[in-house]
Specification:
The protein has helices at about 1-20, 45-55, 70-75, 120-125, 140-145, 155-165, 180-185, 215-230, 230-240, and strands at about 25, 35, 40-45, 65, 80-90, 95-110, 130-135, 150-155, 170-175, 195-210. By secondary structure, it is of the alpha/beta class.
Amino acid sequence: MKKLALYFTAAFLFILSSGAYSLNIYCEDDAPFQFKGPDGKLTGMVVEMVSEVQKRVGNTDPIQMVPWARGLRSLDSEPDTLLFTMSRTEDRNDLYQWIGPVAQSDYAFYVKADSKISIASLEDAKKIASIGVYRDDVRDKFLTKAGFNNLDRTNDNVSNFKKLMSDRVSMYASGGNAIANDAERAGYKSADVKPVYVFLKTQSFIAASRKTDPSVVAKWNSAMEAMKKDGSFGTIFKKYYPNSPLPGPAITHF
């Protein structure tokens, strides 16, 4: 019996070391980080990064695109689960394990290019008739906690952009990294809108559930650090953001 126990322990450790540890890997539809191309295949900056990490650790689990709210529920309730791309904030910091950072974002209130709206503070923004936000993501969470009662929630950012352009919301909370893609997918140009107030700066990560084996998370982080050292991380990043700086060291204290 003791030999059998040692055998299964050794087999389990081998599975972990070989990268065959099975994971649920989820992402949202949020170009250019992750989206479906014209051929229907999943692509995007962080998809490419995750795929490269998978090659390096020997993981072959599929990446599944799901609505953000569903992915977040799975991350909160299921073991061995990854979700990307997630902003790391004070409220979230201790809830998950983190792989990255993969990007950094400035979140701002956007208005139509010819709008006369002027915002100098969060209190000013609370007086606006309605603000489009992506349901349950970092913008929604941050503004809700800050006491906003004028949020108009949708399940994708393209809908937010369309609502802004058709005057169904007065402002739209978006990340500067995503606004050009949101505009294109909504049938507009990024020049059709303008930022009026930056309300949050964050780093973006791949989040792992608390019940994911820490050694697996460490292996993924090591693979990503190796990508940054050998330049492959930068090559992927610059493909999507040629004029933006690479994300700096992980911010872990808030």
